[in-house]
Design brief:
Elements: H1 3-15, H2 34-39, E1 40-45, E2 48-53, H3 55-63, H4 74-80, H5 86-95, H6 114-124, H7 131-137, H8 143-146, H9 148-161, H10 164-176, H11 185-197, H12 204-213, H13 217-230, H14 236-241, H15 243-257, H16 263-272, H17 276-288, H18 295-301, H19 310-324, H20 328-346, H21 351-360, H22 370-378, H23 388-399, H24 403-412, H25 418-430, H26 434-437, H27 449-461, H28 465-484
Antiparallel strand pairs: 1-2
Length: about 475
């Protein structure tokens, strides 16, 4: 996520020695306030003020080694696991204390970004009693000065905490703030993601206006996905008008909203579909719009087979006519040749087709035949060469609430195949830009508490920083889904 960018600045502040001459002169330094005295020792270093961490802050920065970002140190895992000491949670709360002008824990004359550790720490710990303090950081009268990093961190933390009574007004304020009109994608997207997952329409009025006037493509797509998640029919005309821009995100949203005016445009698009991804998305949207005639084609995709396009159907129909028109002597052989040619096309297994259809099936509504095909794919044995059917069928079933599939995902996190492990982490919310994944990966998470432990175990066994950080994102998302009962 973009919070890692903020970590670079944090790293510089924490591990790059400051030039004493550039520091605030020690002789003119103010006396430490209560929070500074609690966690910092003011020292004279070559005539400049040096702030030395102590107590819980020293533990966080040195024992936990949280110099770059919370996601890179064990404090994040302990927070998600509910293992943080009361003293560490108190530290996180103190790190976000603001006097209306600045964070009170800062070393005078320096920016240390410790508030980001506090915001994410409280969010990961789901410390709901501190939700009002985080919401206050992004109150309407403070948003202009809050900054990108704090605003984004607050949006994620409020989602992780799950206190809707506090979070919804704050997230609505983030979405509607005009100071971020064009450049606010990175803070507005996680806010809209949270509101969408909760089924809350508080951001829709702003999104409807943005779909007409806004220019940030990523943010427009997020608004479209949000409209689909909350099933708001008011967005349909705008989505249909710019469907070529929104592509799969728009098609998916139209299917979820369920307005029949989308049937004709989507059927026209279906005739032009030439990619397995486009086909799966459009078929599910049409099925959700009550067009059951498309089930057979989508059922083929749920077995990893690509349905015939309109042009292919026309061509094969002509080939069949020609075969049947042969003389009695050659007809049988001609028909046999035609059937082999048709079978070689229809029965060909394509793993990417299977992957696309399995993930799209999560959003298919009111089709009882779906789960049997998902379970069939989930029961296949993964190999080094072909594993996506097994993995993504289990992801789909788990997102739909199947506990057996969730247990299988936990096992896959210990797989010897790193591609399978990473696929599971990503599907559970571990992408660095999770709010964009949300627009095209089913519901984006699984509400099973057993997976939280499995993800943290996976993290402890991984050595690469990116994978460890992604595991934290996935574990925090999973815990939020558990809390929200999604």
């Amino acid at each position: 996520m973009n919070r890692f960018i903020a970590g670079l600045a944090l790293m510089a502040a924490l591990i790059v020695p400051s030039n004493a001459s550039a520091r605030l002169p020690f002789s003119s330094a103010p006396k430490p306030n209560a929070k500074q005295a609690k966690y910092l020792t003011f020292e004279n270093e070559a005539g400049g003020l040096a702030c030395k961490p102590k107590g819980e802050l020293e533990k966080l920065l040195k024992s936990y080694k949280c110099g770059l970002s919370l996601d890179k140190c064990d404090a994040s895992a302990d927070a998600i696991a509910g293992k943080l000491s009361p003293a560490m949670i108190e530290l996180f709360a103190d790190l976000i204390e603001h006097d209306g002008k600045s964070f009170v824990n800062h070393c005078p004359g320096e920016e240390n970004f410790w508030e980001l550790l506090g915001i994410y720490g409280l969010g990961y710990a789901q410390s709901k009693k501190h939700a009002p303090a985080i919401a206050k950081l992004v109150a309407k009268n403070r948003l202009d000065d809050a900054g990108a990093n704090v605003t984004e961190a607050a949006a994620f933390a409020l989602w992780y905490m799950g206190d809707k009574s506090v979070a919804v007004p704050a997230l609505k304020g983030i979405v509607e703030h005009r100071g971020m009109w064009e450049k606010g994608a990175r803070y507005k997207q996680p806010a809209l993601q949270a509101l969408g997952r909760w089924g809350d329409k508080s951001g829709m009025d702003w999104c409807l206006k943005y779909l007409k006037e806004g220019k940030n493509g990523e943010l427009r797509k997020t608004c479209v996905a949000y409209a689909g998640a909350v099933r708001d029919k008011r967005a349909v005309p705008s989505i249909l008008r710019d469907l070529d821009e929104y592509d799969e995100v728009g098609i998916r949203a139209l299917g979820r909203i369920g307005d029949k005016s989308a049937v004709a445009p989507l059927e026209e698009r279906m005739e032009k579909a030439n990619m397995w991804g486009d086909t799966a998305v459009t078929l599910v949207a049409l099925l959700n719009l009550g067009q059951k005639k498309y089930w057979d084609d989508f059922a083929l995709m749920l077995e990893g087979k690509r349905p015939l396009t309109a042009k292919e159907k026309e061509r094969f129909a002509k080939d069949k006519e020609k075969a049947e028109a042969k003389s009695e002597k050659t007809r049988a052989k001609a028909i046999e040749s035609y059937e082999k040619k048709l079978a070689s096309r229809v029965d060909k297994y394509e793993e990417k087709v299977h992957h696309a259809a399995l993930m799209e099936a999560i959003l298919l509504q009111g089709e009882p035949r779906r789960d049997a095909l998902l379970e069939k794919a989930a029961a296949t044995k993964p190999t080094k060469k072909e594993w996506q059917g097994h993995v993504y069928a289990n992801v789909a079933l788990a997102q739909l609430g199947n506990k057996k599939a969730s247990a299988q995902l936990a096992k896959l996190l210990g797989s010897s195949d790193e591609k399978q492990r990473e696929a599971v982490v990503s599907a559970l919310g571990g992408s660095e830009r999770a709010y964009l994944v949300w627009t095209n990966r089913g519901y984006g998470g699984v509400g099973d508490p057993a997976l939280v432990k499995a993800l943290l175990d996976y993290r402890s066994n991984e050595s690469k920083d990116t994978r460890r950080q992604n595991a934290i994102g996935a574990a925090a998302t999973t815990r939020a889904f558990v809390s929200a009962k999604l």
